[in-house]
Amino acid sequence: MKGGDEIYQILYLIVQCPPNGNMSAFYSNIGKAVDTAIGYTYPAFQKRIDQVRSLGEKLNIVINIIERFNIGLIIFDEIQMFLTSKNSNHERVNVKTESFQAITTIMNSTGVSIGVIGTEIAYRLIFEDQIHQNRRLGKTIYADSYCSNHSTFMRILNALIDYQWTDVKITKEDLTPDLLKAFMDCTHGIIDLIIGLYSALQHEALITDRKTKINESFVRKVAKKYYPNLMKTIDNIGASDYDRTRLAEIEEASKLMKKDISKQSDIEHERTISKIKNKPSDKDMLIKSAVAKITAVSDDFKVNSIIDVSKELYETGNYSVTDEKQFTRDVMKVLSGKKIRAKKKPDRMSKDVMMQFLDNKTQDTN
After folding, report:
1. pLDDT at 28
2. Which range marks the domain in which residue 287 is found?
3. Number of folded domains that form the chain
4. Distance (Å, rounded) from C-alpha 319 to C-alpha 289?
5. Arithmetic mean of pLDDT over the chain
6. Residue 196's Cα: distance from chain center in Å?
7. Within its chain, how far is the Cα of 31 from the centroid?
8. Residue 103 falls within a domain, yes or no?
9. For the residues 240-267, what does the mean pLDDT come to?
10. Do the domain assignments include residue 140?
11. Which of 20, 163, 183, 226 is the most exposed place for a label (fewest CB within 10 A)?
């Protein structure tokens, strides 16, 4: 500007809306957003707003801050929290009048643009009085518009199939119209539901049969198991308790999968214990091998005789499963009346021998 003056501008702010139409917290959050935008680690503007008690004074400070920093746009996130409040029955009721008047006053007094982000509940509350709001509100951008976009839906699924843990993989060619329709019917194209259902498909295949082919019928079966009421919930997307019901359904699915994992872990543990218990001992393996090999080459010895000699030899010797050939030869010798050299355990080196060995090593070194 002429004369060297400078104008400082904050292009936009993102303000988190407090719950239950709390006006004091609403103004405080605007101050906090300003502190964040200009890089203050100390909550200077937030504290300045908090220091006054009157809502009117808080509003005036907010207006002053907006004008001081020439803020271009304020985006209020989770606006439905600010426009509604819970009553004694824990039901959300409309408290938008005061809340919306505050936003309107800020907008009219400063000329700042306002953007709001919220759910279907917020949309209905704002547009209940359509004629009254038309002059104040601009374009509505539907965040769920991608749900009905086929190309976006395909991109999501194509990205998901990069992550697979089953033996039979889904390929791009497997994304047939029937399979896509099953996914769409069960999720309505909502991205977090698509991801949740896809995770459930992988989970179900892993705990049942890794060779399972994920097709249209399998998708519907898994959706019914883990999200039994979700279809009804999605069909009532405009209901006031939609978000709560959907989140509860997702939470139940998560609990069920965790329960499956715990159950599968117990099964695997039992299988491991069973394998250990049922694993034959070295003694049994050596005797079984000796009987099989001796009877295969000679009819001179009865099986019971071979077993008795094998047991006696095993108890007096030092055999392991790796000595299978030697053990069989020794059993054959005993059965034939020959003497065998006892297989002793290796003795520890005596102290005298050890000292002599060390002395010899020392002399060699010198």
Report:
1. 95
2. 280-366
3. 3
4. 13
5. 77
6. 9
7. 35
8. yes
9. 65
10. no
11. 163
